Amino acid sequence: MPYKRKSWTQKWAEAKAKPGFPMVFDCDKTHKRWVVPAPSEIEEIVKTIPRGKVMPIGEIAAQIMAKHKTEMCCPMTTGIFTWLLSYASCEAEGLNVAEDCGKRINPKAAHRGVPWWRVVKTGGELNPKYPGAPELQKALLESEGIKVVAKGKKLVVA
Fold it and tell me: Do 132 and 141 meet the contact criterion of CB atoms below 8 Å apart?
């Protein structure tokens, strides 16, 4: 039987169903209290970003640290879950992530889901790992009145 790839929606559901998240622990190496966030925590925060605003991924981590009263939030897990959320949200809106994103997407079609496009990298840079990157994220932000400019090869929120 041929292998059938999981959809982004299935991957997101599996990530949310994994037990043990959030995981709070004391790190022997850094001597700091860490949190590995739950996917649902990231989704909740992203849903609160208002139209016409952006949030650096570091702010998402800061909110999770404050919630769990820790000194550190795992940046890798936070980034991976945000990335996974972006693809699952596109797919849930009926966008063919592999073919459509960044090509012929109507930005208004993606506006009904979780607003992943409002999450930017530190310094306001658009994330090149998001669906249709960075053109789709740019189009979605500009449709909300957010100005995006080029800085060298990178696109950043003005």
Answer: no
For 50-76, the pLDDT digits (tens) are 999 999 999 999 999 999 999 999 999
| Contacts of 95-101 spanning 24+ positions with Cβ under 8 A | 95/131, 97/8, 97/131, 100/132, 101/131, 101/132, 101/136
Query: How far is it, in rounded angstroms, from Cα 21 to Cα 129?
Result: 24
Tell me whether residue 110 is exposed, middle or buried, using C-beta atoms within 10 angstroms of its C-beta: 0 to 12, 13 to 18, 19 or more: buried
Three-class SS of residue 44?
helix
Residue-wise pLDDT for 21-44, tens only, equals 999 999 999 999 999 999 999 999
| Paired tokens of 35 | 């949190």
| Reported confidence tier of residue 113, pLDDT bands at 50, 70, 90 | confident
Residue whose C-alpha is closest to residue 43's, from 16, 17, 25: 16
**Whether the Cβ atoms of residue 119 and residue 44 lie closer than 8 Å to each other:** no
pLDDT band at 3 (very low <50, low <70, confident <90, very high): confident
Q: Locate 135 and state its tokens.
A: 């053109």
Strands (E), the chain: 23-26, 33-36, 55-56, 72-73, 119-120, 148-151, 154-157
